[in-house]
Write a structure and sequence with these properties.
The protein is mainly beta. The chain contains 1 helix and 10 strands, in the order αββββββββββ. A hairpin with a 3-residue loop joins β8 and β9. It holds the Pfam family OMP_b-brl_2.
């Protein structure tokens, strides 16, 4: 009985020390992001406007929890800017000329990706790859709209803003705040505590207002270049 108690106590001690060792390996740090953003969308109007990339930036914090020597779990809490720029041209109507509408959609998100990381770290490589879900919540946003009517040498431009996450009946676009997507990254560690990674977020949620415009779809797309620093 005494040997059994000692054996069980030894096992508990080993597990306890292992958990302490595992906790000691937990890493955390901060990161900044430069982004190229666009969107995949459809609308009831046809043809669709031309799309262009919209630059954004962001930053946040991450925690990396080791599961084994090769695998780890990396949740992050980030602020990200998403959106897209569009340009639409059409005839000006009975008066002739050309009507051009340029729109910049600005969407600010709190983003929480949870990535499964595979570390290729050995004597010759410090590369890593990761994939996982990403959960976003829109905290603010607007659409900056420039309407230009050109008839001959005369040009008239009007500018207005519409809030993206505000209800349509209140003058907004009625976008949904919650955004879900898939996130994939590839990165490399350098100088012991630094890291650079390239990531892509593929939005799966249709955040467009379907209640008032049934045929509308809007999905975010973002490419991120990130620079991180590990505090521990």
């Amino acid at each position: 009985m005494k040997h059994k108690i000692i054996k069980n106590g030894f096992i508990v001690a080993v597990l306890f020390l292992s958990s302490i060792s595992l906790k000691a390996q937990i890493k955390y740090g901060a990161q900044i992001h430069g982004q190229l953003n666009t969107a995949s969308f459809t609308a009831e109007t046809s043809p669709l406007p031309d799309k262009d990339w919209k630059f954004g930036y962001g930053g946040g914090f991450f925690v990396e929890i080791p599961i084994s020597s090769a695998f780890s779990l990396k949740p992050s809490l980030n602020y990200l800017q998403k959106g897209v720029k569009t340009t639409e041209k059409r005839p000006g109507g009975e008066g002739g000329g050309t009507f051009t509408q340029k729109t910049r959609i600005n969407l600010d998100y709190i983003e929480v990706p949870i990535l499964a990381i595979y570390n290729l770290d050995n004597n010759q490589s410090k590369w890593y790859v990761g994939v996982g879900p990403s959960f976003g919540y829109g905290i603010s946003g607007n659409a900056e709209v420039f309407d230009t009517m050109q008839v001959g040498p005369q040009t008239n431009t009007e500018f207005f803003k519409v809030k993206t996450f505000k209800d349509v009946e209140d003058g907004g676009m009625g976008f949904k705040r919650f955004d879900f997507g898939l996130n994939a990254i590839v990165g490399i560690h350098f100088l012991e505590k630094g890291m650079v990674q390239l990531g892509y977020i593929h939005g799966l949620s249709n955040i467009a207002n379907k209640d008032d415009f049934e045929g509308n779809k809007y999905n975010n797309r973002s490419i991120l270049l990130s620079l991180g620093y590990q505090f521990k």
